[in-house]
Design a protein that fits this description.
0% strand, single chain, 5 helices, mainly alpha, 80 residues
C-alpha cells in the first residue's frame, strides 16, 4: 500500500489510469478492486459474491484510505 496516487482526481479515475499505465502490483490492484466493489455493494458478503472471493478475503483487502476517498466519510470498518 502507499503507492496508490492520491492526486486530486476521482479515485475511480486514479485506479483506471494506474491500470492503463501498468503501475499497480497484483496486490494493489486486488486491494483497489475489492475496495471499489465493497463501496458499491455496501457489504462484504455481496462484494465477495460478485468478486468470487471469500468475504474474509474482501475484508482483509479493503484499503481504508481509498474507501474514505470514495465514500467521502471516515468509515468504521468493524461491522460485518
Amino acid at each position: 500500500p502507499g503507492s496508490m496516487d492520491r492526486a486530486s482526481c476521482h479515485p475511480h479515475q486514479q485506479i483506471g489510469n494506474q491500470v492503463a499505465q501498468a503501475q499497480l502490483s497484483a496486490d494493489e490492484l486486488l486491494r483497489a478492486y475489492c475496495t471499489l466493489m465493497y463501496a458499491n455493494c455496501g457489504t462484504y458478503e455481496e462484494a465477495a459474491k460478485r468478486l468470487g472471493l471469500d468475504r474474509r478475503t474482501v475484508k482483509a483487502k479493503i484499503d481504508h484510505d481509498l474507501l474514505e476517498q470514495i465514500t467521502g466519510a471516515n468509515v468504521n470498518m468493524t461491522t460485518v
